[in-house]
Amino acid sequence: MQNWAGNLQYAAQALARPATLDELAEVLAAAGPVRPLGSRHSFNDIADTTGTQIQVDRLDDGRPAADLDPETGVVSVNAGLRYGELSRALQLQGRALGSLASLPHISVAGAVATATHGSGNDNPSLASAVVGLEIMTTAGELRRVTREDDPEVFPGAVVSLGALGIVTRVELTTVPTFDVRQDVAVDVPWDTVLGSFDALTGAAYSVSLFTSWDEPTVRHALFKSLVPAGAGERPAPVADLSWASVPVHPLPGVDPAACTEQLGAAGPWHERLSHFRLEFTPSSGAELQTEYLLPRRHAVAAIEGVRRLAPQVAPLLQTCEIRTVAADDLWLSPFPEDSVALHFTWHQRYTEVAAVLPALEDALLPLGARPHWGKLFAIDPVDLRGLYPRFGDFRALAERFDPGARLQGGYLARLLS
Ligand SMILES: Cc1cc2nc3c(=O)[nH]c(=O)nc-3n(C[C@H](O)[C@H](O)[C@H](O)COP(=O)(O)OP(=O)(O)OC[C@H]3O[C@@H](n4cnc5c(N)ncnc54)[C@H](O)[C@@H]3O)c2cc1C
């Protein structure tokens, strides 16, 4: 079996999709390496194993797939549910999530495990909404870990890279539903971006900038504004901008039919916060992705550093997206402080992309960059560990949950070995 992008053939010998918790325990009782697998949207072998991959998308533990507690606003979610499905269920009950990734196709457990994020100066990653997890360990024991009851362990257990066990339930905080409008500004001058970065990214609830680095301006800026907080008006950014009069896809030349509604039409959060609609192929489908997350205070230096590499980078790119992410306290989160995210959607030219990654890392690692756990990067696992002050604690936690190291396949094995 392959990952979603088709750039990786899994080494796994088998795929299990248990329908009940007992079936899951049976799969785990069989000897050998195992690995949780989400919706396969990661670009590296973080979800791989030489044994059995386990998906929980069919798992029915007898509770509703999205079980909302109206008193606390916490929703307990079947871990294999996709964000698009969860969002619709929440909207029907008048609730919302604060942030979504660019695509609603990813599973909740898989996204949380890699610290997947959306955008917004005040919006932390999707993992930050987690307040509890139910995890079946390789010994077949079902454990519940919550922020309230397990404060020592919880920050290490959320962005888990699938190293602790099979997450069966994720508990998420929700907020009252809200409306959003999307407006696209085109040809934003680099001087505006570099001179007023914080103001520009703070001009709406969520802002994304799209560029291929070698263009005279930033190709477009996508503003997602709260309605009616902005009184239904376009955001008022720092400079005069030219507004698109037709919808714009993040990738140049691609049909925007796959995109959530733009042109200022207000609508519910779950039909605006992701760039792409659940029913369509997100992004291009034929692609590779890389992303570096680094302190927002270094955003301008990082952008200038990548612009200097434009001659090497641009020919391989479909697009690049610049977003912001607020800080959290999770041990393996790449957002220990308010951050900027530099995302690269590459053409599927793996050898050439791999050749350019070290130059990007030479420019960005000195600024505190960490790679996205689910994408392509060059940094050696030994050096990567050193970027996370709590990595030793995480390794000890993984040993406690999985003493036989049965979960240690693919990239995780290289990281923890
Ligand atoms: C088109 C596209 C757009 C993207 N956009 C964004 C974006 O906007 N922001 C962003 O941050 N990332 C983005 N990504 C990356 C993506 O969000 C991450 O790779 C995410 O981890 C994928 O989730 P998944 O369900 O496919 O998990 P997988 O890729 O299948 O697995 C990822 C990790 O989760 C673990 N895992 C999965 N299920 C479980 C479980 N039940 N229990 C324990 N561990 C589990 C796996 O072991 C693995 O370590 C994008 C990817 C694509 C293909």
Provide keyphrases for this structure.
24% strand; 12 helices; 417 residues; alpha+beta; five-stranded antiparallel beta sheet; Alpha-Beta Plaits; binds flavin-adenine dinucleotide; single chain
Question: Residue-averaged pLDDT, rounded?
Answer: 96
Question: Architecture of the domain at 179-371, according to CATH?
Answer: 2-Layer Sandwich
> What portion of residues is helical?
10-25%
Overall strand count = 19
Radius of gyration: 21 Å
Q: Which percent band covers the strand fraction?
A: 15-25%
Largest sheet: 9 strands, antiparallel
Shape category: globular
CATH topology of the domain at 179-371: Alpha-Beta Plaits
Bound molecules: flavin-adenine dinucleotide
Separation of the first and last Cα atoms: 25 Å
Q: Which regions are unreliable across 5 or more consecutive residues at pLDDT < 50?
A: none
Based on secondary structure, the structural category is alpha+beta
SS field, number of helical segments: 12
CATH class type of the domain at 179-371: Alpha Beta
Helix and strand arrangement:
Elements: E1 14-16, H1 21-29, E2 34-36, E3 52-54, E4 66-68, E5 74-78, H2 83-92, E6 95-96, H3 108-113, E7 130-136, E8 142-146, H4 154-157, E9 166-173, E10 175-176, E11 179-189, H5 190-195, H6 197-201, E12 206-211, E13 217-227, E14 242-243, E15 267-268, E16 288-295, H7 299-308, H8 310-313, E17 317-325, E18 339-346, H9 350-364, E19 370-371, H10 381-385, H11 391-401, H12 410-416
Parallel strand pairs: 1-3, 2-3
Antiparallel strand pairs: 4-5, 5-9, 6-10, 7-8, 7-9, 11-13, 11-14, 11-15, 12-13, 12-17, 16-18, 16-19, 17-18
The structure holds flavin-adenine dinucleotide.
Flavin-adenine dinucleotide is lined by residues 4-5, 35-42, 46-47, 56, 79, 101-103, 106-107, 109-111, 113-114, 116-117, 161-162, 166-167, 282-283, 289, 372, 374.
